[in-house]
Amino acid sequence: MFPPAVRKLTTMVRNEHVHYTDICEVVEMDQGLSAKCLRAANSVAYGGNAIKNLDEALFLIGIDELKRLIYTLGVVDNFNHLRIQVNWQPFWIHSILVARLTEKLASAFRPTTGIEYLSGLLHDIGKLILEHYFPREFENVLLTSLQKRCGWTRVEDDLLGVNHATIGAALCQAMNLDPQIVQAVQFHHQPLHPVHVHKPNGDRGFLACCLHLANVLADMERINIGGHDEIKGQFDELPEWKHLTTHFDCAGLDINLDEEIAMAKQKLDAMCES
Questions:
Q1: In the Cβ-directed half-sphere of 260, how many Cα atoms lie within 13 Å?
Q2: Within 13 Å and on the Cβ side, how many CA atoms surround 220?
């Protein structure tokens, strides 16, 4: 799904000591991606600076932000020929917003590495696979979720016997992404499932809980396509949040949701302009 440059970068994501020259070399493997990165980096969303090359981009927006930009471009570019005639902008805003929120939530408990953002960006990728290969089934799920005013997974399981989380996880595994990403995508609607939480050598549900809570925050603002699951209770009463604060040390969480939504929209605009 990803171009070679993006696939290469995903294998480097957990290396905290990766040098900026390594990132430049990888991005420069793909001239089209490199050009789009520069155009996006020069957009208002990234400060509107007169950036002339990737070295300057890295210096001005930073290595972490450049990686986020590359990931997002890699996903958006590979699904820019969607056939179902719906407004896809909320879907992309939702994906970027959940990526940002997943990273923010995780950073309240531990240093982030990049897998958090990428998990959020890819959590609904299974919906795009459905749209691409099974457009009639996709449209049926979309319409049913809107009519019943409920989330996708219940409708998918009823109509298809499989849901977008399982499909998305299979794709992430096929791309040889980090196992934590695969698990988080697969269980982002059921992060406390015993099979996941007690998985040997797993993360005790940490990343999936962060992803689930990020998705909840985004759904509270009704930013997506299709129906939404009803949010029951206050955020700090949700079992996923209680699981995180019980089993992991929290340094404090401060999220301005309106600000995060505005930033997600800006980032998407930068992608479209590029």
A1: 22
A2: 17
**CB burial of residue 4 (10 Å; 0-12, 13-18, 19+):** exposed
Give the end-to-end CA distance of the chain in Å, rounded to a whole number: 19
Please report where in the chains the tokens 């809107």 appear, as a residue.
146
Retrieve residue 153's tokens.
């997974």
**Cβ–Cβ under 8 Å, residues 221 and 261:** yes
> Which tokens in the block code for residue 46?
């990234």
Cα–Cα dist 122/116, whole Å = 10
* Cβ–Cβ under 8 Å, residues 205 and 190: no
* pLDDT score at 273: 65
Residues 6+ apart with CB under 8 A from 138: 84, 127, 130, 131
Cα separation of 57 and 46, whole Å?
Answer: 10
Integer angstrom CA distances of residue 258 from 261, 262, 269: 5, 6, 17
SS3 33: helix
Query: pLDDT digits over 151-201, tens only?
Result: 899 999 999 999 999 999 999 998 888 899 999 999 999 999 999 999 988
Q: If you average pLDDT over residues 64-82, what whole number do you get?
A: 79
Nearest C-alpha neighbor of 214 from the set 179, 175, 156, 253: 253
Tokens of residue 129, six digits: 């696979």
- The position carrying tokens 């196992």 is 179
- Integer-rounded Cα Rg, in Å, for the chain is 18
For residue 251 the two structure tokens come to 């340094």
What does the alpha-carbon distance between residue 228 and residue 119 come to, in Å, rounded to a whole number? 20
User: In whole angstroms, what is the distance from residue 55 CA to residue 242 CA?
Assistant: 42
Q: Which of 171, 122, 167, 125 is nearest to 13 (CA)?
A: 122
